Protein 1
Amino acid sequence: MYKIRLSSGHLMPVLGLGTWQAAPDVVTQAVLSALNVGYRHIDTAYNYRNEDAIGSALQQWFKEGNNREDLFITTKLPHVGNRPADVENYLNRSLSRLKLDYVDLYLIHMPFTFSPDETGDSPAKNEDGTLVLNETDHIGVWKEMEKQVNAGKVRSIGISNFNKSQIERLCNIATIQPSCLQIEMHAALQQKDLVDFCKQKNIAITAYSPLGSPGSKQHFMNKYQISLQSPDILHSDTVTKLAKTHKRTPAQILLRHIVQLGAAVIPKSSNPARISENSKIFDFELSESEMEEMKHLDQGEKGRILDFKFFKGVENHPEYPFPKAVSN
Ligand code: A2P
């Protein structure tokens, strides 16, 4: 399995299994399917509410004689726990659910913070339905993240969904530099500027939704009654053509493209055949001219699928990371 050397010195497998939207009753089997076809990197988050089921899969895999040291497990500090006093507490809960004594990578999931409701898991709401925003102290949170590394509960630390100026602020005060930035990245949102910036800072990139998140439309309609705009990159002419040329599937072309841009990929799937298909991306290469063709699919900000505005009122948070309005 191909790996990226992080600034922490640890290795991160380039291919991981994404598990957002994977319900507990399906994720255990998905993780076992992935491990059985060679995945060694599993990505989850406190907010995905599936850490417990993932922990059960890992326990089963260890029982079969496999080693913890061979795995790379990522989880994330939730937006409702994004304050210095909460970091250790939420990490401990994640570790206990995952049934692990350390995670390989702990990320600040979002650059903004909400007040938790009475369950502690979801954002509290104002009377008008907007979420209760809290001030966010990135520097204080980062210092607590560093303490978790020193305590041995986390091997590497990083951020997710942060923009350039937010990353710069952290880098300026960090004793332990962020190892990884996890962002939405796919053919329609190629993120060249942010990727180049992170390269200079020696921050590895992990691309989420690398297939263009085809399952999200249904998810957001069901959960928030929101109709999501998402570019159908899996069926674009360029991808269809390259799939024919290389005798690969469109998904394999999309994943290979992102890997050749230098990022790790964490495609989500709960289907064993597709989990296996998505892993077969290391035995072919897109040529320079094919990479150029893929460049034309980039729509910049217009290609972003997950702008988090489904968190009602989030764009009014001072740390909202994306442009508030995107011109056509
Ligand atoms: P499924 O779980 O039924 O396989 P992304 O990682 O970009 O968010 O995409 C995840 C979505 O893409 C899921 O809905 C998943 O559905 C679907 N998917 C995963 N792998 C493939 C594939 N190889 N071909 C087509 N769709 C896929």
Protein 2
Amino acid sequence: MSEQDCLFCKIINGNAAADVVYQDNRCVVIRDINPQAPTHVLVIPREHIESLDDASQKDETLLGHLLRISARVANEHGLSDSGGYRAVINTGRGAGQSVFHLHVHVLGGREMTWPPG
Ligand code: 5GP
Ligand code: ZN
């Protein structure tokens, strides 16, 4: 998918609406439109990378940043104190990826089961 057609690029560029809970020069965090837990946010790099599978060595610092911000946002939503949270990167259609712009799901506020379906 090209960047022009990408939903998350549109949100990042201000061409589509979203509930933004955090942003910095490398990423934007929005509330998921179809939450799967009481707290469900998406940590999205500003750079268009289709999936984790397309990240390369030059993206290592960015990937670390996305995880650190995932933890920070989870903490700001009280998820560490309420039992923990899950950070998930669906990679590929068969694994549940539906938007092909890399993002980390941060879910919490309820009991989680394992294995994920
Ligand atoms: P994926 O399925 O690719 O792992 O995750 C994509 C996520 O984006 C889904 O959880 C879906 O609910 C969310 N999503 C899809 N369209 C929109 C939208 O227009 N706005 C927001 N905030 N989230 C969306
Ligand atoms: Zn994109």
Protein 3
Amino acid sequence: MSKTYKPHPDTTQKAHISSLEQYKKIYNESISNPEEFWAKIAERIDWYQPWNKVREYDFVNGKIEWFSNGKLNASYNCLDRHVNNGYGDETAIIWEGNDPNQSRTFTYKELLKEVSQFANGLKDLGVKKGDRVCLYMQMIPELAIAVLACARIGAVHSVVFGAFSSDALRDRINDSACKILVTQDTGVRGIKQNIPMKANADQAVLHTPSIEYVIVVKRTGEPVHMDVERDIWWHESISNVDDKCKPEEMDSEDPLFILYTSGSTGKPKGVVHSSAGYMIYSSYTFLNVFQYDEDDIYWCTADVGWITGHSYIVYGPLLCGATTLMFEGVPTYPNVSRFWDIVDKYKVNQFYTAPTAIRALQAHGLEPLENNSLDSLKVIGSVGEPINEEAWHWYHDNVGKGKCPLVDTWWQTETGGIMISALAGITPNKPAHASLPLPGIIPVIVDAEGNELNGNNVQGNLCIKSPWPSIIRTTYGDHERCISTYFSNYKGMYFTGDGVKRDHDGYLRILGRVDDVINVSGHRMGTAEVENAINEHEDVIESAVVGYPHDIKGEGIYAYVIVSTELNDDEIKDQIINVVRKVIGPIAKPDKIQIVSGLPKTRSGKIMR
Ligand code: PRX
């Protein structure tokens, strides 16, 4: 990599917390004077107009503002800022295809051009600031480009994970009345060669009155139906546009994106993130947790369809001028050493994945690791669910070779960025413990009555006192739901839905959800959501879904179902699974279904899970 660029201020050692003592000092400063602390961090990015108040909040009404009246643009800060600083020829994105011989790289200059073109393509279709654009794609570069293009023109992106069904896509489009849907012809993932993305999109848009156009990336070249009035190829949408696009000046509190996530009740909710606070927190945590340095190659294996991909594939790394790797495939294709082949191929320095992937690979033993050196790795990370001690040690010893710090990062879609985690190489590791809060974060352990449990050796529900910059701003179209879910359970605090233990050293260990949410392979699922899907089968009378310990997935889905049917048990179970696949997608299909004649109920008739 050439050394001719000016060192970027964000990626120099100066921007990092570099010792445990410094962490403690900075943490204390961030708590005693949060406004001064965050103002200093916010100065690292470029503003069209500075803010006039760092933060203002009222948890009772769920009203939170950071950097009030500041004006800035996320795409400008991810791209133009680095190009203007002489960093344009550095690699922004390395894309590794499902097939090992398919890859692409984008320098910051190239990415800026692609993003500007697509932004102009969207504008030509009438997309304006504040309009919602739905992105339903696999892990192809155009997904990151579309995210940044939306941010450039002030459109609010709503990425829907590419494995959701057409029904799930339809509901998410309708909830936020998206104007445009961006998808691809078909997708490839592992041995699956033709995932019917466009066909699913076609099904969905039969019932989405707000969608005006569907833009289709040609990924595989498989023939797909194109509606001449409604559908446009991506490459045609950018064929006659300027490759410069002036970024829209966004208010700090203008929404940057919506991302749907499951809750304990009802339908998934659209978590809304702001522009300034989200950018500042995701980039700050990226730098410090992973201790990213100039020239490092960073790889997060998540999907951009989830918050981890938003914050730590796209925004966090690009805001810091980092090189971020985006992988289209799966860890087991074409063989079970694929992750390790990629680490060696690109000399990856920071590797961030989910416990479920670790456990799945662990099951294949050490042989798949034997042909790779993994020498380049400096930091390994975990996210999405509690990492059990066995998986922690396997990952630490065999992937990190005992020399890489392992950052177990606890956070949520609603928090926008990492909240509790070791800082790599700085916070001493303790297996299965997320460890200590990031600067600015005040975790509080409360009992069922809301009493704070101070000191060490305590266990209870995890709340966060006082807001951080990237805290959820609202649930789209239903602010009351935001207040009742997060700010009403415990007065004056944000409630996470997780249980936690503070051990004798003051380290935090996340114990998992305390509400009706289960975590299947790091995917968050509402039990009520799965039950609603099961109940759509006409022979199902009632169902109850619970999580159960699963060796690979962390939690599996166990469904108790009452049916009235002529079918035998195997037939009805197959049909139920198909209904769930259709209503939500394959990630929600029950691992076990037990046909029962009754379900335990409370006196008021509520199912006791
Ligand atoms: O239960 C916690 C678990 O995942 C939930 C958040 O899910 P989601 O919004 O989909 O975001 C996942 C990626 C940030 C949390 O409430 N969780 C996440 N990270 C950890 C975790 N549980 C234990 N340890 C973690 N490191």
